[in-house]
Every structure is written in structure tokens, then in C-alpha cells.
Amino acid sequence: MSIIEINNLHFSYTKDEEILKGINLIFDEKSTAIIGQNGAGKTTFVKLLKGLLKPTWGDVIIDGKNTKEYTVANLAPTIGLVFQNPNDQIFKNNVLSEVMFGPLNIGMDESKAKDSALKALKMVGLEEKINDNPYDLTLSERKLISIASIVAMNTKIIILDEPTIAQDYISKEKIKDIILKLKSQGKLVITITHDMDFVAETFERTLVFCEGRVLLDGKTDYVFMQDEELKKAHLEPPYAAQLCRKLNSDKIYITVEEFIKANKR
């Protein structure tokens, strides 16, 4: 069953320049990464999914709802967006209030909102920080608070905008673990990212955007083996795949873990 349907989607900010050009896609429960150079249309696309923008032409159907017919508030219980910069999202003076805001805003009663917020904070490992001011915490912790704020809303779809920016290895691993947990709960997780290694390690499906169109769409390992198309999109495959090419390896591995396991054998 499709969770999102995109039918002949076109979008323009001005009459003179079309940003998205006839996109047709179906999203099921597979975790999906959207990659591409700056200006490829990725951010515009997820804003259309969230209902922040409306199509110039075509339709975006979110869990059976055409975004043309619904407000952002109407769509909020179904689809959540974690901003690239947590400072653009956080505004409360303590962590628990911040994470409860989303659930309360979509109609959860206070008891249920608090329970959901505490579970989300436990998932991201910040359950001991509930009384702290978010701005007393590190950037990595604020990123996790912004993720928890959306997780607590229990939306069917969660979009992460550049989740690994300014994150160290430990934080990236934590975010990866959160995504895998969300997937195990039946959530559709979509990310925009420039971190190819994170994509290779975490996401089942990858879309390559190039000049407002979908250049590649498929299983992540397949996408990262399409060298010519990746060059057209000005993208490089993950480091493990690059190393395999340089070594003239018979098989291309897209993660370091796969590469090490194969070479141990």
C-alpha cells in the first residue's frame, strides 16, 4: 500500500523557472534517502510533501489526502519534518515542554502528550535532560531534541533534513539507530542528505534528484553502482565503493562494514 503518491508533479516559484518537472513517485514503508546537488529540487520537494508549498501542476497525495485540499495543520498528524538547523525549530525553555508542543498541537491530551514525549526522549537518549533549557545543551543534543519533538507526534511519515550535519560519529550512529527503530515501528522515514556513507548504511531506497527531475530511483546499493548517472548528478558514491573501484574489485561494496567482512573472508 502506498503512503505517498506523486503524480506528474510540477512546481515553479516564478513563471520563468520550473523547479520540479513532471515527477511521478510512490512511497511505501521503505526508508528513503533523497540525494542530489544543491539546487536539484530536494528541499522544494519535501516542502511540497509537508504541504508548505502547493503544486503548480499535478498532485501530492499523503496517506490518501491531496495536499491541495488540506492545510499544513491538517497534514501535521500524518507527516512531520525535522529541520536541518535545530535552532530554527526549538523555542521552549525546557526540553520536556519542547517535545510536548507538537503532540499537544495536534490534539493529544496533556497526559498522552507527556507520555509520548518521554518515550521519544528515551529513544534519543535524553530522558535525563527533561528539565534542562535546550540552549544549554550541545548542538548534537539539540538536534536529537528536534527529532524527539517529531517522533513524539507519532506521525506515519517523518522527514529528516540533513540529520548528520555537524554531528560526530557517536551522534550519527545514534541517529542511524533512531531511524532503524522508527522503521521497525512501521514509519516511513525520508531524509535529504549529502552524506553518502550515511545513506549507504541506513536507507533501503535512494532517489537521485538532478535539475528538478528524478534521475535514479532504486535500492540503495543499485543506485550507488550507477557511475554515469551519479556523475551527471555531480555526486560521488560512498567511500567504500570508491575504494573498491580503485582496487579494481570484482564486487562493489557500499559500506565499510561490508567491505571489511568480504575481505576478511
Automatic annotation (TrEMBL):
Cellular component annotations (GO), alphabetically ordered: ATP-binding cassette (ABC) transporter complex
Bilayer topology annotation: Peripheral membrane protein
The UniProt record lists the keyword Nucleotide-binding: yes
Domain ABC transporter positions: 4-236
Coiled-coil annotated spans: none
Domain of life of the organism encoding this protein: Bacteria
Family annotation (SUPFAM superfamilies): P-loop containing nucleoside triphosphate hydrolases
GO molecular function (one): ATPase-coupled transmembrane transporter activity
Annotated InterPro entries: AAA+_ATPase, ABC_transporter-like_ATP-bd, ABC_transpr_CbiO/EcfA_su, ECF_ABC_transporter_ATP-bd, P-loop_NTPase
Homology family: Belongs to the ABC transporter superfamily.
Name of the protein this chain belongs to: Energy-coupling factor transport system ATP-binding protein
UniProt organism field: Caloramator quimbayensis
Upper classification of the organism: Bacteria, Bacillati, Bacillota, Clostridia, Eubacteriales
